[in-house]
């Protein structure tokens, strides 16, 4: 039996309702400290935080960005997608051709009429748009700002800002916003900067536990700190001391108007969050595509999501009112496109938005695959898993799980071999008629996700 062809119920091309020749897309996620490739420098205007990447291997961070870009590209539809190459390791020049082959293997599963047209580039100057074409980005990056954009980069940056959300009027947990009082000239003085770090951290040191601290531009939980006790407070203050100083150093005349330097100290809400995916039209209308449970890793970072298709009608009805409020807020900012937000239920039964990402998110594809998984194959439960260190290659993985792939209960959403290692990183979708069979398959895959013995730190400076 041959693996099934993947066809989405709708793609971004359908949702944007734009001519495929006019719409280009780039799904390379904005980054803070990690330089993705030699040809794609970190941004100085549109700054982001990823504090917990500091101790991670540089190559692993790059490949994670690449695998996520593959997965997001799957839902693009038959439009042009610009994908930045990963560099070969060390001093070797040129792109990693194996990463290109991995990308083609992933996208080759998609129905021909929905398959994106991928153009690989090493630097932004290689992106040449035809007249009247516009580009949609997963987030603003300085080197792409010269291109005509579907949404202005300033508007998109504000739509991604946790500070803007806290002040938006959308229902959120009670939040104190601690803005810097320094300007772009003052942050160049180390003594003023050190005093400002102490001032901004004072509420974190004094607020009664429990509470949550957030950085303004971070994702996947990496910039969120949960303070439950004094030990958490000590660890959080130490980590934020470095990060606040780093944010201050990046304040410039070019980005002061975006208010990129702040901390958000937020009331903790008990319970679990539901991940709502939707598309906001140019007119500001909300189309809720899915309501998913989230899987959170040991450090509070996002590691996957789960959808129960039988519960979608009820959940969409319940969360459409808060989705409409989010859509109205996005429309005011000038953003339209895919959005994911996390919602919790407050003490009075009200829905509260605790986080928002104005872009394609990890669970966005699940709502668009109901026809593939449930209607055609009877799989009611589907999870997306992010596997960081699979100890087998793509061919062996396909061979070992050939029956599940042929049945359509396992879909490879992203795959990339670590260039200097024996392990691979992947996004995997697993499905089952009920949750138990889905979990059993997921456990078999997780058993192959182990640290590679050769996974030594990479001494690479670019």
Summarize the structure in words.
InterPro entries: Asp-Met_ligase, ATP-grasp, ATP-grasp_PylC-type. Residues 162-390 form the ATP-grasp domain. Keywords: ATP-binding, Nucleotide-binding. One of its GO terms (molecular function) is ATP binding. The chain is of the alpha+beta class. Helix content is 29%, strand content 23%. The protein is built from twelve helices and 16 strands. The chain has helices at residues 12-16, 58-74, 97-107, 153-160, 162-166, 190-206, 230-249, 312-333, 370-375, 394-400, 402-407, 435-446, and strands at residues 23-26, 80-84, 117-121, 134-137, 175-179, 211-214, 224-227, 262-267, 274-280, 286-296, 302-308, 337-345, 351-357, 381-390, 410-417, 424-432. Strands 13-12-9-10-11-14-16-15 form an eight-stranded antiparallel beta sheet. The protein has a four-stranded parallel beta sheet with strand order 3-2-1-4, covered by helices on one side. Strand 1 (23-26), helix 2 and strand 2 form a beta-alpha-beta unit. Helix 2 packs parallel to helix 3 and helix 6 packs antiparallel against helix 7. The radius of gyration is 22 Å and the shape is globular. It starts with 11 loop residues before the first helix and ends in a 16-residue tail after the last helix.
Structure summarized in a few sentences:
The protein has 462 residues and is α+β, with helices and mostly antiparallel strands. The protein has helices spanning 12-16, 58-74, 97-107, 153-160, 162-166, 190-206, 230-249, 312-333, 370-375, 394-400, 402-407, 435-446; strands at 23-26, 80-84, 117-121, 134-137, 175-179, 211-214, 224-227, 262-267, 274-280, 286-296, 302-308, 337-345, 351-357, 381-390, 410-417, 424-432. The chain starts with 11 loop residues before the first helix and ends in a 16-residue tail after the last helix.
